[in-house]
Write a structure and sequence with these properties.
Blueprint lengths: L13 H16 L4 E3 L8 H4 L3 E4 L12 H16 L14
Parallel strand pairs: 1-2
Length: 97
């Protein structure tokens, strides 16, 4: 989302949750599918907005401030439980520090 997020807001804050819903509504009006990047955890909005095909919502490799061993152990568990909430798109953006 980059510079769209106002200062002091976070991805899991009310402003961003409302932003994702606004984007889903607007793109649905134009019949465009959308894959949200770095949204909040899955909440079932894909059922409300069928054009919302997936969302990332998973920690990227090595993004836990250098805790690579913990990341490798927790990744399968986190991805399994994350997929219980709906379809996801996993984009490993940080491969090596």
């Amino acid at each position: 989302m980059g510079h769209i997020i106002p200062r002091g807001e976070h991805h899991d804050g009310q402003w961003m949750v409302n932003h994702y819903v606004r984007v889903a509504k607007k793109t649905a009006g134009y019949k465009i599918m959308v894959d949200m990047h770095e949204p909040v955890r899955p909440t079932g909005l894909q059922r409300t907005y069928p054009n919302w095909v997936a969302c990332e919502a998973a920690r990227e490799t090595n993004s836990m401030h250098g805790a690579l061993a913990i990341t490798r152990i927790m990744k399968p568990f986190c991805l399994f439980t994350r997929l219980m909430g709906g379809p996801m798109d996993y984009t490993p953006g940080i491969v090596q520090n």
